[in-house]
Design goal:
Largest sheet: 6 strands, parallel
Number of domains: 2
Radius of gyration: 20 Å
CATH class of the largest domain: Alpha Beta
CATH superfamily of the largest domain: Glycosyl transferase family 10, C-terminal domain
CATH topology of the largest domain: Rossmann fold
């Protein structure tokens, strides 16, 4: 099975290589081929999957689809929900299976089987290891909560509320360099270790969506994400075949802090949340692999 992976999607590469396309989840050998807009694509009669984002020109993707006839496509990074022209292309191209990030309920995928997937974790986060069956929760925490990132939207207010209620915290404000996972002031593997030693990770709104890498990185490291949003937005945002992670949710940050403080005193509850999120993330990966295997067998 050939995986054509866009070079400009380096942020998630480890998540795809080591987990979504973990060799132990498939019967066939996995072959990764990196590409960009200038790569010459040669036709083949094998089973092909394309992983891309909108930085790959739609004309290049159209040519790739003609030559490769992929049965599945992963379309990444459409946080703003603006990539309808790509989805329109997939609908008329014969693609059977589409995985996308972010909740895109407003779009009708018609006859394509479309599924939302977690954003995953930044490359280097697990130091080139797989999450599946290789990581175990750490229940002994050094920090009550941790936050690493930029101040956007409600994040300053969020941190103020958490800082007043949880004194043992780690806050590092810095701009994310999306072009290169390694060019961060706190390296990805250091971020993993920080979250591993933290109980809560408050998740403020990003550019527009509540969904962000921080949620899944916290889960993978064994921390508990805390999110503020309406139940309607939560259900629309986290549409993972009717299963959302076991995160702390409230419609105000005051309520989110109160819930977190309540759980803080219940160690068994905290352990249950952390363990259930580990299981949830593992289930998401295996669910994706089963869908791929099923459709691949139907087509080849």
């Amino acid at each position: 099975m050939n995986i054509f992976y866009a070079l400009n999607s380096a942020w998630e590469f480890d998540f795809f290589k080591n987990d979504i396309f973990n060799k132990h989840l498939y019967k066939k050998k996995i072959n990764f081929q990196l590409f960009n807009n200038d790569t010459e694509i040669i036709s083949n009669d094998e089973s092909n999957i394309i992983v891309l984002n909108r930085l790959i020109k739609i004309s290049s993707i159209e040519e790739m689809i003609k030559k490769l006839k992929p049965f599945a496509i992963f379309h990444l990074s459409d946080e703003w929900g603006l990539d309808d022209d790509y989805y329109d292309l997939y609908k008329i191209s014969g693609v059977k299976l589409l995985f996308h990030q972010y909740g895109l309920r407003k779009y009708n995928f018609d006859k394509i089987s479309a599924f939302q997937i977690p954003l995953g974790y930044v490359s280097g986060f697990l130091q080139n290891k797989s999450f599946i069956n290789n990581h175990h929760p750490n229940y002994t925490k050094k920090h009550d909560f941790a936050f690493v990132g930029e101040l956007k939207n409600d994040r300053e207010y969020m941190l103020d509320k958490f800082s007043k209620n949880f004194k043992n915290n780690f806050i590092h404000l810095s701009k994310t360099n999306w072009s290169n996972p390694d060019n961060q002031t706190i390296k990805p593997y250091q971020l993993f270790n920080l979250y591993k030693e933290s109980l809560f990770v408050p998740i403020g709104r990003g550019n527009i969506s509540l969904d962000c890498f921080r949620i899944y990185e916290a889960i993978v490291a064994g921390a508990i994400p805390v999110i503020c949003g309406s139940s309607k937005e939560i259900n629309m945002t986290f549409n993972f075949h009717k299963k959302i992670p076991n995160i702390i949710i409230a419609d105000t940050w005051d309520k989110a802090v109160l819930i977190s403080k309540k759980y803080y005193a219940d160690k068994d509850k905290l352990k249950d949340i952390i363990f259930s999120n580990y299981s949830w993330f593992n289930e998401q990966i295996t669910y994706i692999s089963r869908k791929i295997s099923f459709f691949e067998e139907l087509n080849f």
